[in-house]
Design brief:
It contains five helices and eleven strands. It is an alpha/beta fold. It has one domain: Rossmann fold. Strands 1, 2, 3, 6, 7, 8, 9, 10 and 11 form a nine-stranded mixed sheet that branches. Strand 6 and strand 7 form a beta hairpin. Helix 1 crosses helix 4, helix 2 crosses helix 3 and helix 4 runs antiparallel to helix 5. The mean pLDDT is 92.
């Protein structure tokens, strides 16, 4: 019987190329940080799409990107340094999520990927100092980061949590990079923090200036809207005085 989640590589691509690579992925959590960051990395590094992930309850959309027809869950590859990026344009259906995580981790082990870097976001309201991010790793990940660990009892939820758990069970080193992010809106600044951290971890400088500029413009627009709303309230109040 076919599995509910299947990884399909493009015809002629040898999965032996993945041996020794690191894998980066993320999802549309707080600030859509993981999604923005992974899509940016794949694009900025000119990575090649080499496969897709198919699920039983597949999101029913497709769109055109620079490389052609885009699928909901895509696998990108770069040779030097060896890097795999899984871009999730949507969240897996809740009925598929456990199997999605299990199959992806088993596949990583099978093809010789050495570690997973998982990008998420932490609610900015939890920030207590000047740090830009926190992190959490499973017991198989040996490196310690300079940033503070995630506080005890805070929850990572959704597919990112499942990937951490299955990585722990299957013996795959995994690290969650968690920049502080806006909980309820798109946050390119948090994504930029994640992109720079990933670059540091893999020994490759990734220019995140476009994301920082996007964040600056976004904040300017929010400020304009806020001033406009304040003006409307003030004018409306004056009319009834």
């Amino acid at each position: 019987m076919p599995r509910r989640v299947e990884i399909v590589l493009k015809e002629g691509f040898d999965e032996a190329a993945f041996q020794g690579a690191r894998l980066v992925t993320g999802f549309k959590g707080f600030g859509a940080t993981g999604y923005i960051a992974t899509r940016y990395i794949a694009s900025k590094l000119g990575m090649e799409r080499v496969g897709v992930i198919l699920t039983k309850y597949m999101p029913e959309f497709a769109f055109r990107d620079d490389y052609g027809l885009a699928f909901p869950f895509e696998i990108f590859y770069r040779e030097n340094p060896k890097l795999v990026v899984v871009v999730n344009h949507d969240l897996p259906d809740p009925r598929d999520r456990r199997v999605f995580a299990e199959v992806l981790v088993e596949w990583m082990k099978k093809v010789g990927i050495t570690e997973a870097i998982l990008i998420g976001g932490l609610d900015k309201k939890l920030k207590s100092g000047e740090e830009k991010m926190r992190w959490l790793a499973n017991s198989h990940y040996a490196e310690k980061l300079g940033e503070p660990l995630m506080d005890k009892w805070l929850l990572i939820i959704g597919p990112l949590a499942l990937l951490l758990m299955y990585s722990e069970l299957k013996g795959l080193p995994a690290l969650a990079v968690l920049p502080y992010a806006e909980a309820m809106r798109y946050d390119p600044y948090a994504a930029a923090v994640a992109v720079e951290k990933v670059g540091q971890l893999i020994g490759l400088k990734i220019d995140a200036s476009e994301l920082y500029e996007e964040a600056r413009k976004f904040e300017e627009e929010l400020e304009k809207l806020s001033k406009l709303e304040e003006t409307k309230r003030t004018v409306g109040k004056d009319l009834y005085m």
